[in-house]
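Quick illustration, no need to memorize.
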Amino acid sequence: MALSLQQVLKQTQKLIMTPQMQQSIQLLQLNSLELEQMIHAEMMENPFLELADDEEGLASAPSDDDAGDAADAPADTGLSEQAARDEVPEEAHEPEFDRAPAAAADPLDNTLAERPDDSADTGDFEAFSKTDVDWNEEYSESDTIAYSSTREDLEEYDFTTYTAIGESLYDSLMRQARLSVLADAELRIAEFIIGNLDEAGLLDCRLENQAMMLGYAPDLIEPRGGKDSEDRLRRVVLKLKGESNIEHLRELNRRQLVATLVAHLIGVTPDEAMTMPRGEWLLALIARKLRKPLDDFKDLPPTELVLHVIAGRMRTDPDTVFDVLEVIHDFEPTGVGARDLAECLRLQCEERGIRNRLLYRILEQFLSDLQQKRFREIARAIDVPEADVVEVFQIISRLDPKPGLSKTKDSARYITPDVYVKKVDDRYMYFLNEGDAGRLRIASHYRRMAQRDRKRGRPDAPAAPEGENGSNPHAGYANEKYKNAIWLIKNIEKRKATVLRVTEAIMNYQSDFLEHGIEHLRPLTLRNIAEVVGMHESTIARVTTGKYVETPRGIFELKFFFSSGLETDEGEDASSRSIKEMLTQMIQAEDPRRPLSDQKIADMLKDKGINIARRTVAKYREQLKILPAKLRKQVG
């Protein structure tokens, strides 16, 4: 059969994400604060959107121009005032295709010649306002769900309520450096060191960090990377080889690409680079940048090597770097600039005037054993009484292992609930935190102006250029913005109903939690709620992500109420969150001198009818960031 070009008619079905559907999905993912920000951004772009005054919807009567709209509004649909005002009777839903344009053309009254079949852009402005939206049909399911705005009257903030922005660790240390004896080149070295401190205030001396200090790309140094990282490595390999065809490198994985680059940089074969330990080729890369033999650094600990690395980067000698680092060690908070935990604790002991030789020896040689509370092993190794080792531990436990956190702690994060659950007369009621979304409406000024200009021409208005069939190019902009405003208000109303329905379903399922607390949480999945509200699981996931509910038991994220379960002796399931809460209460009530082991906790839970293994208890304990029994044991 000969090949030829043919035109074939084919009929298919597929789902197209319309702009309105995309906007609806986007709104579901936003919490109340993000929704307000989005509304304000839309108001900057769309002149047909405005926020009604707090008292306007209650105190003011409708104007003469809006009397027709008010007459058509439904008596009780569960919608906001603006949504009800925009509703039109069924007979007005038919687009008026046969309406002839008025003699005195207005930018808002003309049809769009480019889209004669679009009823939303056909006819005058009034015809467009009769958008094909049946609000009763759209929100028929939301009538039984009560919601109201909890917005309170806002008052002007007093200037005494404002606080200054906290000083960061970097700013604090740089201020102290400029007030110190450091100047010129030494001050630049201090700035480089301070800029490389981590949030704990310590100088990271890992070989990976030192290699990046010398300018190596993270794609080469970091052990992990995505597809973009691999593509960048392939381009670097091509550049080194002077080639342009990247296809033959597609089969190489990230490890092979890194080995190829390392082999080229340190002068070995790719196979040798593949078999080299990671620390060895990192040290070889550092030696290459410093232009010194590798043997000069093989016996240096990382805390000493970092002095050479900084010296090479700042083009000075290691002794000068050490002198600058000594000055930084005198800055506040005490312990910043230390190259490891032992040096950080030693600096704090020296600042407090502690003169205990055993303490400094343990810090230098047995810090890891001390962290594991191996007091007996340490005492045997250095031939001292175990009580002396315990005394050293008690002194060190009062020190701060992360002094920089005193400057880098995040400010308090305030949560604004999206939904409020309140108990009124033995019944739980649900209220949505609408914020500015509850006051959003079509700008009455522009609507009245458009209706007035339609009824009577504007003799003082400049004549707009007319296109084909008398169409006006300005009508397209106005109609498009009006349509966008209608769809935004509609999607916000749909979001309100969806969030409330999902929250109500979750709270009804977790009614025992509302009455008795976290210990009575039931296992819950997205599918359970999806079946109740008749929505897809992905929709439930969007609704519950990043949104908070204020209950009589506190403020929780909606995702908090979803968890797996374990079987009990009664055949029911117990939520993993309730088990974690019981585990936390057991550990808080334990004797600190004889803490509960994981097996003991598992046995205690089995006595309560919860079948759980020891390894599951250990997993939950690690998720709660609770130390093992040995490290929780109180000494002294």
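Residues 169-339 form one domain.
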